[in-house]
User: Fold this.
Amino acid sequence: MRTGKEQFLRVKEWENYRRIVHGFGIKGEAGGKISKKDWWGNSLTERGESFPLVATRQIHGDGVIVFTGDGQQLEDLWLREGDALVSRLPGFALGVFTADCLPILLFDPFQEAVGIVHAGWKGTARAVSRKAVEKMREAFHCREENILVAMGPCIGPCCLEVDGPVQAVFAANGLPWEQMAFPRGGDKWSLNLQRANTRLLEEVGVKQENIHRVDFCTSCRPDTFFSSRGGGETQGRQLSFIALRKRE
Ligand SMILES: [Zn+2]
Assistant:
């Protein structure tokens, strides 16, 4: 499958990084539903290079998997539970599938390592993005201050209303709720997934100026994005990806 501007949004601040390709998916031309299974075994073609797509079985958890590309892993990675992938292996596209959840891309240009995170409110409450960065340090000796972050479209605080039980999960995990959500009155809050994950990443040493965002609310824009809460198609997911190129 050839990717193009019509199918993926890019972070313009990353245009000059020739070592990687990346994209945040929008509804395809057909607007049809896609699933991991449809994509499994498929490749993305970018700048004349073909990248087999690899992804995990997303469960709204905090599991981070190091993708090494060994045979067994290639065989059954998509059956393994996990919500983040990190890798230094060129030639593969790490992917996540989202509707309202936040896709986060990670890139360390010094260690030449990449990562991808699927962060809904549950994963965010379990600090999955922070754990992905910590795994990049542990596995690849990445320094947090070198890691570049791109956050994609997700449900915005305009549409993500949550209540006391959600707040309780964040509180139980020691996260600064007041910096991630604002009160709507009563037992209701607006949760800002991009801000919450920015906070988590800054806490671990990622620099604010290295965090870029694509600002769309998937729920406000059902014309462009699949959204669970925004109505319309309920099963569709957009694919987001990041890959290290084999050559520059
Ligand atoms: Zn919205």
